[in-house]
Write a structure and sequence with these properties.
The protein has 2 domains: about 50 residues; about 140 residues, Rossmann fold, CATH 3.40.50.620. The chain is elongated and about 70 Å long. It has 6 helices and 5 strands. Helix 4 links the parallel strand 2 and strand 3. The longest helix has 29 residues. The relative contact order is 0.15. It has a 5-stranded mixed β-sheet, sandwiched between helices. The chain has about 180 residues and is of the alpha/beta class.
């Protein structure tokens, strides 16, 4: 619980600092010192850290729905995209089969990079900065590591994991892809 309050306090502190800079720029602009006011605002823009939208793929892939949603959100909110692919296994799992271990890990990386490449091209067309990370762990563990490494993640977008697709089809329910968006306050 202390972590949440600490982050809130930190964000409020940064907001206060930004407001002080804006007030300083306004004061100098009103006093006729427009050049100094412009320099102050330029410093403020340089200090701003771009905020990221973390997009969790389903293992080595990203669905069309999640790509479209993430691109739209990133464009509207001026976010950078950080795409994450995870394999729910460790390369250490195959320690006994060392030749298989390298092959499985390399194939997963290759497939992930290929699929993320399509995502990256779509982001580049819209002028959205894009970064891609591949991790060999459970998705929850990877999310913990990523949020500690990248402190500027504002939202996480992920797809649902449907375990009972067969029963839904039998009940006459149409298949659909649910997307989830989590705020990283």
């Amino acid at each position: 619980m202390a972590g949440i309050f600490g982050r809130i306090k930190q964000k409020l502190s940064r907001t206060g600092e930004k407001m002080d800079k804006y007030q300083e720029a306004i004061t100098f602009a009103e006093a006729g010192e427009t050049e100094y006011a412009m320099e102050t605002m330029a410093e403020q823009r340089e200090e701003q850290v771009p905020t990221k939208l973390l997009v969790l793929g389903r293992e080595s892939t990203f669905s069309k729905e999640i790509i479209d949603y993430a691109l739209d959100m990133a464009q509207r909110m001026s976010y950078e995209i950080l795409a994450l692919n995870t394999a729910p296994l460790s390369c250490e799992t195959f320690k006994l089969f060392s030749s298989s271990r390298n092959q499985v890990c390399e194939e997963f990386k290759s497939m992930s990079e290929k699929n993320a490449g399509l995502f990256q091209e779509a982001a580049a067309e819209k002028g959205i900065p894009f970064d891609h990370v591949i991790m060999f762990s459970e998705q929850d563990q990877a999310l913990d590591v990523i949020t500690k490494e990248y402190r500027d993640i504002a939202f996480v977008v992920s797809e649902s994991v449907e375990d009972r697709v067969e029963s839904r089809i039998e009940e006459g329910e149409r298949l659909r892809q649910n997307l989830y968006v989590y705020s990283m306050v």
